[in-house]
Amino acid sequence: MQEQRILEIFQSYREVHQAFFQLMTKAASKHKLTALQLIVLRVLREHPEIRLSDLAEKVKLGNSTTSGIVDRMVKAGLVDRERTETDRRAMTLTLSEKGMALWRETEATRLHMMRSLLELPEEDQRELDRIQQKVLHLLRNYREEEA
Amino acid sequence: MQEQRILEIFQSYREVHQAFFQLMTKAASKHKLTALQLIVLRVLREHPEIRLSDLAEKVKLGNSTTSGIVDRMVKAGLVDRERTETDRRAMTLTLSEKGMALWRETEATRLHMMRSLLELPEEDQRELDRIQQKVLHLLRNYREEEA
DNA sequence: CGCAAATATTTCGCATGCGAACTATTATCT
DNA sequence: AGATAATAGTTCGCATGCGAAATATTTGCG
């Protein structure tokens, strides 16, 4: 049945997503980090003093989820969180010294983690990207039309 | 940088996965169900008296996660959970009358939910499947070699 | 200016999701 | 048979993940 086929696509997505997440989790755990903390480290290094909502946008997560992740990183001393001068509702997030040092320490781990994935031919990467965009578009269409 | 590219693939996967999940969540919520409960209903309808670990295998989740999901469905009266006769460690899961009825009620919702996705050309579906397999394989290779 | 609407973030309740530890039962080995 | 290992599920602690509600601040309208 058609329904079955779509379900299989969904499950295949979840599987790949989970495999990806576990790979990153494993790599990150070598530095006592989680997968998302490693991703956030990267974003903060490239965008110092970023706002929480902009960070959430970049990592494709909701504000509330991002808030929790950042909170744990602040508690761990990796991130400095300060009120903005101009807008006292907003927060700016920046890597602490400790966070900066940790980012540098993860260099080798990150490269090693990526190694296996780099074997995916460029051709397939482009093709994958093309289809993902299409799928996303279809899924979002449904969301719109429901609202 | 290459690292960047891989990260983008990862994020794109998470995005599609989340969009998928939200689509199903929205559809399921019309019947006071969650996305996974809808999936489990399907599996139980097709495989009555299935064991928990076999269900976990089918939905690609860990035993502990599956146990929690089933537990909530039992509490909601959708699933009957009984000890096996032959092996008193194992449990068999079967849809209750209520679960069966609910499954039938979701028919229209399920078809409607799938509709937009069916617009993805068969060609793309096959291509996607091919690449996903490849990616999964690469990711699993890394896991092996780490162990 | 003063109040309502909009905005930024946090908090809350709930549902995944995992691995590790635990319980109960069954299989295996001597 | 009796100790030991293996297996099936559940429970626990933790980290995502979301939307809704709450809080604080700023903006905009009359």
Structure characterization notes:
Chain A is mainly alpha-helical and 147 residues long. Helices cover 71% and strands 8% of the residues of chain A. Chain A is built from seven helices and three strands. The first copy, chain A, has helices at residues 2-29, 35-46, 52-59, 63-75, 97-105, 107-115, 122-146; strands at 50-51, 79-83, 91-95. A three-stranded antiparallel sheet of chain A has the order 1-3-2. In chain A, helix 1 packs across helix 2 and helix 3 packs across helix 4. Chains A and B meet through helix 1, helix 6 and helix 7 of A and helix 1, helix 6 and helix 7 of B.
Which keywords apply here?
homodimer; three-stranded antiparallel beta sheet; Arc Repressor Mutant, subunit A; mainly alpha; DNA-binding; 147 residues; 7 helices; 8% strand
Describe the SSE topology:
The structure is a homodimer of 147-residue chains.
Chain A: H1 2-29, H2 35-46, E1 50-51, H3 52-59, H4 63-75, E2 79-83, E3 91-95, H5 97-105, H6 107-115, H7 122-146
Antiparallel strand pairs in A: 1-3, 2-3
The structure holds a DNA duplex (30 and 30 nucleotides).
Task: Give a concise summary.
The structure is a homodimer of 147-residue chains. Chain A is mainly alpha-helical.
CATH superfamily of chain A: Winged helix-like DNA-binding domain superfamily/Winged helix DNA-binding domain
Overall CATH architecture of chain A: Orthogonal Bundle
Radius of gyration of chain A: 18 Å
Overall pLDDT score of chain A: 92
Total count of helical runs of at least 4 residues of chain A: 7
* Cα separation of the termini of chain A: 28 Å
> Would you give the CATH topology of chain A?
Arc Repressor Mutant, subunit A
Category by helix and strand content of chain A:
mainly alpha
Assembly annotation: homodimer
* Highest-level CATH class of chain A: Mainly Alpha
| H/E series of chain A | HHEHHEEHHH
Taken as a percent bin, the fraction of beta residues of chain A is: 5-15%
Q: In what order do the strands lie side by side in the largest sheet of chain A? A: 1-3-2
Largest sheet of chain A: 3 strands, antiparallel
Low-confidence stretches of chain A: none
- The helix content of chain A, as a percent range, equals over 70%
Largest interface: A-B, 53 and 53 residues
Number of strands of chain A: 3
Shape, per Cα inertia axes of chain A: globular
Q: Work out the count of structural domains of chain A.
A: 1
